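4.2 Preliminary Data

To establish feasibility before requesting continued support, the project team ran the inverse folding procedure on a target of 272 residues. The structure was first converted into the token representation described in Section 3, and no sequence information of any kind was made available to the design step. The complete token record follows.
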């Protein structure tokens, strides 16, 4: 009589893949009221991703002298850091919780590679953070920590910071840079309905090619690119791209492309 040995099935531990890092062109604050095609693209991207456990966002609108800072309040709240817009915009809130634990991990990760970093327990989220998050995490239940841009800084420093924080992607943290590839408020076309300026298209095309190739070394020398002087009069809106690039370690692809007022780029990229 044959006897069969019954073996218990071997349990296989499944580890979800790391979340991507993102760069979002956040455009005008009015996108919080009507996101249009941009908002639809952000919502569709969010639906395609595994659910994050938290979000780390670096916005163009927070610069700090001497080093990085990370918001560490249990509930950071928001600031309406703009003027001259429709009244309903100032009534919007984004009541997401913060995460003191994640803020500590961010500071430790940066300090671990020799970068100065500290906690900011009283800093709210600025519009560069909460406007895109209204579409990426509309339920406002995921913990959010905002990371500042240090002064002074270089693309190389931000790439290094991104690499130092890349481990968070494997722990379910969505890393988001929020700014704009082309951002020149002095050259806005308030009439609307016109195509982007030629210099804006030239610079954005150059950046897009470097991003697609994963050519971070050339991208870090963006100031010599065609249209750079007009497209990036100051670097704070471009700089969050380098943090997202560093956190990814590889090339990116656009998930939205568009323009506002001739010289505000809404180009947004996913890395890995």
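Position-by-position output of the design step:
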């Amino acid at each position: 009589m044959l006897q069969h040995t019954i073996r218990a099935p071997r349990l296989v531990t499944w580890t979800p893949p790391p979340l991507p890092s993102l760069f979002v062109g956040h455009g005008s604050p009015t996108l919080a009221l009507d996101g249009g095609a941009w908002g639809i693209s952000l919502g569709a991207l969010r639906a395609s991703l595994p659910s994050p456990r938290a979000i780390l966002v670096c916005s163009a609108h927070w610069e700090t002298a001497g080093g990085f800072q990370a918001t560490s309040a249990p509930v950071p709240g928001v600031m309406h850091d703009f003027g001259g817009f429709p009244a309903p915009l100032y009534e919007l809130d984004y009541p997401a919780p913060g995460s003191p634990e994640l803020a500590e991990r961010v500071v430790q990760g940066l300090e671990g590679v020799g970068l100065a970093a500290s906690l900011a327990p009283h800093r709210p989220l600025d519009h560069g953070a909460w406007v895109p998050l209204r579409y990426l995490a509309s339920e406002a239940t995921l913990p959010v920590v905002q990371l500042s841009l240090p002064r002074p800084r270089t693309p190389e420093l931000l790439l290094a910071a991104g690499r130092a924080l890349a481990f968070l992607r494997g722990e379910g943290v969505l890393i988001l840079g929020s700014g704009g590839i082309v951002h020149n408020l002095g050259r806005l076309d308030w009439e609307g309905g016109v195509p982007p300026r030629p210099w804006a298209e030239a610079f954005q095309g150059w950046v897009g090619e470097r991003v697609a190739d994963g050519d971070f070394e050339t991208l870090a020398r963006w100031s010599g690119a065609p249209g750079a002087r007009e497209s990036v009069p100051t670097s704070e809106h471009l700089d969050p791209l380098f943090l997202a690039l560093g956190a990814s370690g590889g090339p990116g692809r656009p998930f939205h492309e568009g323009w506002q007022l001739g010289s505000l780029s809404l180009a947004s990229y996913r890395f890995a």
